[in-house]
Amino acid sequence: MKNGQIMQAAIIEINNNQQLVSYNQQAGELISSNLLILNQTFNYHKVFSLDNSVNLDTQDDTIIVLNSQYFLLQKINESFKITFVLQPVEYLKKRLSKINVVGNHAFDIFADQSQTMQKLIAQAKAFSMQREPLLITGETGTGKDLLASACHQYSPRGDQTFLGLNCAAMPDDVVESELYGHALGAYPGALESKKGFFEQANGGSVLLDGIDEMSFQMQTKLLRFINDGYFRRVGDDNEVYVDVRIICATKVDLAELVEQGKFRKDLYYRLNVLSLNLPSLQERQDDIAPLTHIFIDEFAHKQGIKPPTVNQDVIPYLTHYTWPGNVRQLKNVLYSALAQLTSSQLTVKDIVLPAIASAQVSWINNIENKTLDEMTKQFEKEVLKSLYIEYPSSRKLAKRLGVSHTSIANKLRDYGIREEDFC
């Protein structure tokens, strides 16, 4: 092995009679050939320079030195053989370093020019490091699944499995089988046992999207699992324990469902320990510009073309729209425009938005769990924003609405409606 080269794991197998049955190329390069004789007794204490008092069966791993290098030695006992695995510590350190790099950049996929998103991401990073369940809420299209994935990658579990299940409109037997697995013969046609998501993601995280649509029966079983980590596969009497972090996502207000008797109160309080609420795109308008450039660059990269330039009128045009479909809708609108673009510059004329009438009433989609006063203020803000395009000053707008200039000026300030946004 050349100096500075990092070798792969060396693997050595012996039978129950302590006789060497096989070894890979890496083991052959690492250990002297007179110590690796097939069908002969393999004295691992001697080969690995271990004291006779060392019992590898009672410890998960051991650090040893071979050829002036540190190795992690693991002994794996099976019914018919024993396997020794040696991995260079330097290799493991570099691999962990790469994992940490990926984790540290897990949230870079989000545009966070707005203070709202900056605050959310800081909160998400803190919550990612915990073991408790994580609840992510937000309107359709805000990116709840992306946030869940980023939280997993940033967490200490980031190098483990991340799986997601959409619970919406799924029958109980399907949900149960997917999450908990089933034993041989549990169902007609179940010719073999199957591991569910929780077993497959042991040590990692599982996202349950649309948790609000999970039945009471499945909610009860999920609560038991969250409490102690134990469950039974469908059709099996044996309990299985796994260490999985549960991340739940929903677009509705679970507290409201609890009040309506449509969601278990005890499960809600168990899930609502660490909660993140993704803002709508309308609540993070400062992010529309960076998101636009991200999606344009993403589209160009996929198509293998040079990204078009963006006309100066495009961002204000996009910012004035209400985006009821949030970030997903913005991406779809831009992709549609770019797919039909025939020039090297994207202009307002290339972008097709749904009718203004639809946009003006989109606020109705965001009134869940709000008081009458909050809904009234939300509607008032939408009216002012819509009319300000045609009456771009507080005096003109006051005259149009038949109220005082001072009153309109105060409302524009309170709602963050600025003249420069409409220029």
Name the features.
single chain; 423 residues; alpha/beta; Beta-Lactamase; Rossmann fold; Helicase, Ruva Protein, domain 3; five-stranded antiparallel beta sheet; five-stranded parallel beta sheet; elongated; disordered N terminus; DNA-binding
Describe the secondary-structure layout.
Layout: E1 10-14, E2 20-23, H1 25-30, H2 44-47, E3 62-66, E4 69-77, E5 82-88, H3 89-104, H4 115-128, E6 134-138, H5 144-154, E7 162-166, H6 172-180, E8 181-182, E9 194-195, H7 197-200, E10 205-209, H8 216-228, E11 230-232, E12 239-241, E13 245-250, H9 254-259, H10 265-271, E14 274-278, H11 288-303, E15 309-310, H12 314-319, H13 326-339, E16 345-346, H14 356-360, H15 372-388, H16 394-401, H17 405-414
Parallel strand pairs: 6-13, 6-14, 7-10, 10-13, 15-16
Antiparallel strand pairs: 1-2, 1-5, 3-4, 4-5, 8-9, 11-12
Helix pairs in contact: 4-5, 11-13, 16-17
Describe this structure in words.
The protein is an alpha/beta fold and 423 residues long. The protein has four domains: 10-93, 2-Layer Sandwich (Beta-Lactamase), CATH 3.30.450; 105-278, 3-Layer(aba) Sandwich (Rossmann fold); 282-354, Helicase, Ruva Protein, domain 3 (Orthogonal Bundle); 370-422, Orthogonal Bundle (Arc Repressor Mutant, subunit A), CATH 1.10.10. It is 39% helix and 17% strand. It contains 17 helices and 16 strands. The protein has helices spanning 25-30, 44-47, 89-104, 115-128, 144-154, 172-180, 197-200, 216-228, 254-259, 265-271, 288-303, 314-319, 326-339, 356-360, 372-388, 394-401, 405-414; strands at 10-14, 20-23, 62-66, 69-77, 82-88, 134-138, 162-166, 181-182, 194-195, 205-209, 230-232, 239-241, 245-250, 274-278, 309-310, 345-346. It has a five-stranded antiparallel β-sheet with strand order 2-1-5-4-3. Strand 4 (69-77) and strand 5 form a beta hairpin. The chain is elongated and about 100 Å long. Residues 110-339 form the Sigma-54 factor interaction domain.
